[in-house]
Amino acid sequence: MAVLPAVLAVLALLLAPAPAMAADPPAVKLSKSQAGTGGSITVTGSGWRSKALLMILVCGQSVPSSGVTGGTNSCANADGRAVTTDAEGRFSRKLPVAEPPVPCPCVVHVATVTGAKAEADAIFQVAGHAVEPLPAEPAGGRLSVLTDTRLDGSGGLLTWFGAPPARTLVFTVGNVGTSPVKNPVFQVGTSHGVFAPQWEEQQWRGTIQPGKKARIELPVELAAGAHGDYTVSLKYGGKVMAEQPWGVGRPWGVTLFWVLVCLVVPAALFRVGMAVVDRVRPRQTSRRRGFRMPEVALRIPGLRPREEAKHAASAPTTLPWFTPDNDPGTAGRLSAPHDDSPTSPTDPPGPTAPTRKGST
Asked: For residue 189, is it left (φ>0), alpha (ψ between -120 and 50) or beta?
């Protein structure tokens, strides 16, 4: 009976899932560790996010342990290359060798352009380029970002109609040095796509004692009508401390305004044109005008105007083509008119006597 628990324990160990191994960090390898200006090297990488867009640069005054201290300002940005990783997070790209704007030691710097931040460096020497020691870090107070950065705020109705989008960059820093930091000056940069950030200096009022921390809030504003994916970067002491993505919606109010303009303006121009045409075209006049006799008011002596109007309304109307001379006679007569005079056939011939028409 004691064998059964031991067998069950062995089976549980065999059937238990293997512990997930930690993902390998992004890595970069170079085909050559040294090359001169005008040549090229092949840069390969692994451990990156699948289908990620990367930027490859040659940067000076940098080492892999401390990263690119001067930011992209110390890199040969004009000769950089972009590459997209495959489904397994690997890439291979040929990079032309160019001299960075600052002396070496140099590295080949690879960093993500969009999405979660990731970067890696590999030592590289540009043949014939000046080499100088890295600048010493300033003694005294040193600030370090302790929490993730975030953007507070939201857009409004004016932003929907193209007003500049604005947010507040919020983060917490701590003084890891030995002396207080008074009124530190930060650099806040905004970049769109693969373009380099546009830096703006902003000073925070206050003093951070050694070993203390402070909550920093810095305003960030984009240009009017800006939309798309932006990245807000924070730099202090020449080193990029944090980056925060910012998705800005399209100002649909501007699109609606132009649609209305395209509909209203042509309609208004059409109405104005029709009014002008109606004003300048010649008027058509009738060639033949009928002759109207002036109306003659019949007045009966002894009647007042109101009684005259009443009498005219009650009086029968005589048709103009029926006069006493051509009255057809009684409506009941159906035969043709004939002579009813009492003349005898023996009377002598003579002028015909006038007969009365319509007699019965």
From this structure: beta
Closest Cα to residue 108, out of 45, 195, 189?
45
**DSSP per-residue codes, 196-255:** PPEEEEEEPPSEE-TT-EEEEEEEEE--TT--EEEEEEEEETTEEEEEEEEEE---HHHH
Task: Name residues of the chain where pLDDT drops below 70.
Answer: 1-23, 70, 136-141, 284-360
Nearest to 70 by CA among 123, 109, 122: 109
DSSP, collapsed to helix, strand or coil, labels residue 34 as strand
Please state, in angstroms and rounded to a whole number, the distance separating the CA atoms of residues 57 and 99: 11
**What's the whole-model pTM score?**
0.48
| Secondary structure class of 127 (helix, strand, coil) | strand
Name beta bridge partners: 199: 189
- Residue-wise pLDDT for 240-287, tens only, equals 888 899 998 888 888 888 888 888 888 888 889 888 888 888 876 555
Judge whether 168 and 130 are in contact, CB under 8 Å.
no
